[in-house]
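Re: folding output
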Amino acid sequence: MRIQDVLRLPSMPAAGPSYPAGPYRFVDREYMIITYETDPQVIRDQLPEPLEPLERPVVHYEWIRMPDSSGFGSYTESGMVIPCKFRGEEMSFVAQMYLDDDPPIAAGREIWGFPKKYAHPKLQIVKDTLTGTLSYADQLVAMGTMGYKHESMAGNGERTMATLSRTQVNLKLIPGVDGRPEVCQLVAYNLVDITPKGSWIGPARLHLVPHVNAPVADLPVRRVIGAHHLIADLTLPYGRVLYDYNRPG
């Protein structure tokens, strides 16, 4: 294998790369986002500096079903997003993510620094209830429920666009062969080519169970504010370095 062939590889292993080159297109991507208030000190402890917490201690707990994603196939994801600020700009810090498919786990961690771990999330309609569950190591660690399409927002894609186009940021940490953090960065990215297909708000409940390897309950639910159910097509492009811990400045 020539040097130029090595440099053209999208990912490891060379004999059968774990994922192809991006960007990555998602069709009919479906979200249930439950927003709740939590303990402000926990948010401060969870946000890596130089990110700063907002005045209101809010967390977005998400379930995302992706039935058609280029290069990754069909899978479901669940995780926690903390609204924050970086040098005055509001953005969203992705704190935890759990999903059931190896290629997006590998790509997400290696390219953008998504905090992805293998687990078993599920988002489905059960009778009149949109229901999300997350199991880790055969134990239920999260359950969210939302009234199914109680209040339609179809025809007004502003909230959906605002939700999906907001800058998101990850803590990317990749050790070198000596164990030191060779890559230690805050990585920012913005979803693009967004086409809203449906948007609904409604009442919701969220139950989080303590688990040592899926510590979603470390951000306790103080009060559920509401939920947003949405469907959209979108593209995940490559990101950019927001802050480099090895070269601060």
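--- second protein (sequence, then structure) ---
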Amino acid sequence: MLNTPEPRKTRLPFEVWALVAGGFTVALGYGVVAPVIPQFALEFGVSNFAASAIVSAFALMRVVSAPVAGRVIDRFGERRTYITGILIVALSTGASALAVDYAQFLVLRGAGGIGSALFTIAATALLIKVSPPDARARVASLNAAGFLLGGLLGPVFGGIVTAFGLRAPFVFYFFTLLAAATVVAIALRGSSHAARSVPRPGTEAPVAFRAALVIPQYRALLLSVFAFGWTSFGVRVSVIPIFVVVGLHGDPATAAWVLAAYAAGNAALIFPAGRWGDTMGRKPLLVSGLLLMTAVYLLVPAVPILWATMALMVVAGMGSALVNPAQQAVLADVLAQRRGGNVVAGYSMASDLGGVLGPLIAGALLDAAGFGWAFSVTAALLAAATLTWALVPDSRKLQSADPVDTAPGR
């Protein structure tokens, strides 16, 4: 048998590494501060509901600010929007360490949500612009791995930082955000990719949201990221821990191990998924990953055994690793290195809406009808996204197609 050498990998631009480093730094700091946010709110003598509302306020402001972030990007560029947004989060976080009452803390976290929408949407748009067309899934997996590593290390640092008091994590996050802003500002200062669009001839204007909606892959993407946000950012972190404690008679520590199993499955496939997405295409990964996640959420309430739940969470993490980079690669295929702030904002908004509505609706179903219904509705949503991707062509074919209309507007 002849040994055929593998195709040479495309060398990634330095801008990619700068953005991944910035994302890792942000995730590290957030992993430190996130667990103490409700605890800090309780220090002001409010109810558990009011303490939880602090988290919801941040998420809500991310959702409502997404369309504004898209317009800001199209007008001022991704690099300026990224730095502005991350500085807003830094200042609001640093000020939170000085908050003297609940109202101040609530307003500051809401302001942080606005800044978060600006810089996360700008970061996604920047990654799309600087990603080589034949390495888009690989860049997305590298970025996801940076966030995953930062999120895993954050609680480790958090245990050390929290020893200095509940205000200390906010100070720590303030400095990590400044570090991320500095890295990106310096690294991308002379970048032609980050400073301007890299359009095809005759497509200098930003890609309009209405024009992107004409593309079936983008419509499928909006449903997919909504389902992914509902499941991975919502139900997984809200209903799964309750299921472990109530349904499996575990404790909070056991719930943490179950979520760690998900992270382990995600880490196992995150890098291979990037390679496969660029060689096999986006569609096979999206269909297979969503199918895995659908099966998991159908089986979890049907097999109420701790070791089985942990094994299923590993599989869910593997499915998530297949889906997440492929989704960002589809978005990159739609934009084809052109500016499209509103298109990226729509993608981010769909994911955030899923993350906000998932816990609320699944929680209501849990109270009204039990775990079976909560997980079954989640599985049905994932199945709908799977079917949608099965019916549309792979988005890599868009690279050779005519560019979409780029007329201004939404």
